[in-house]
Design goal:
Blueprint (H helix, E strand, L loop, with lengths): L8 H4 L3 H8 L2 E7 L6 H20 L2 E4 L15 H13 L3 E5 L5 H12 L4 E6 L6 H4 L5 E6 L2 H25 L8 H11 L4 H5 L10 H9 L2 H4 L3 H11 L8
Helix pairs in contact: 2-7, 3-7, 8-10
């Protein structure tokens, strides 16, 4: 899909200030409704998705689209738990989340939570005639609303927003680089083994019943701090089960 000739000059000729961010390939996640749409709604949404993908490619941003991997229509054999893990992993490892707010979606709502908790900038895209939940527009953190009346207008506006965001996205990636380390998970495993406890024993020792499963604990032990992104509540439960303090885990 060709970009319109009237794109702002700042998008066609990136400044020296933006060159470093432009040269570094960034990652974006496209969140949208996929479940419960009729054929006409899917067709239009995919047209908008294609426009977003073209703008991202123009700005050297690699766009992940769940419709190509976990679409409820075309990928029905993918287990529910795998859909959750895949989409969460993709969101958390993205530099930007683009949300198409054309139809209500509990799945996309969950993805917005993942992004907000990881301080991932969010671009909310919606037609000017679409009403958007205030639970979306009220999300604290870096959020930008992109309204459009035509695909051409959407392309131009989105290109400008992504161009302006690139330096900030690169700065965020550099700032969070240390979270790629595997400190908390390794510490949990170390303390668990020092106490000769199995993962099941740890899971069964929490104050909150069924706070997490042995399988979830295994994933935490094996994943980076960025992927885990453990909340204080989870850390408190893990610490309690291991008879240590939260500071011993971090």
């Amino acid at each position: 899909m060709a970009l319109p000739n009237h794109l702002p000059s700042v998008a066609q000729e990136p400044s020296v200030q933006n060159s470093q961010a432009t040269q570094c390939r960034l990652d974006a996640y496209l969140a949208s409704a996929l479940t419960g749409l009729d054929s006409g709604e899917r067709k239009y949404l995919f047209e908008v998705s294609d426009a977003v993908a073209a703008v991202c490619a123009h700005n050297n941003v690699r766009l992940y689209e769940p419709r190509n991997v976990t679409d409820p229509v075309h990928h029905t054999t993918v287990p529910d738990s795998e859909v959750f893990r895949t989409d969460r992993h993709r969101v958390i490892n993205s530099d930007l989340l683009i949300y198409l707010a054309h139809h209500p979606s509990t799945g996309a709502g969950q993805e917005l939570v993942f992004a907000q908790e990881s301080i991932i900038p969010i671009l909310v895209v919606a037609h000017i005639g679409t009403r958007i939940s205030r639970m979306v527009t009220g999300i604290p953190g870096p959020l930008t609303l992109v309204r459009y009346d035509s695909i051409t207008q959407l392309t131009a506006q989105l290109d400008q927003e992504i161009t302006e965001l690139q330096p900030k996205l690169l700065q965020r990636r550099i700032a969070l680089a240390e979270l790629e380390q595997h400190r908390v998970g390794a510490r949990i495993k170390e303390l668990r083994e020092l106490r000769n406890m199995t993962r099941r024993q740890v899971a069964e020792s929490t104050r909150i019943p069924n706070a997490f499963s042995p399988e979830q604990l295994k994933q935490w032990e094996q994943s980076s701090d960025k992927v885990n992104n453990l909340s204080l509540t989870y850390l408190q439960e893990i610490a309690s089960a291991l008879s240590v303090s939260v500071k011993d885990l971090v």
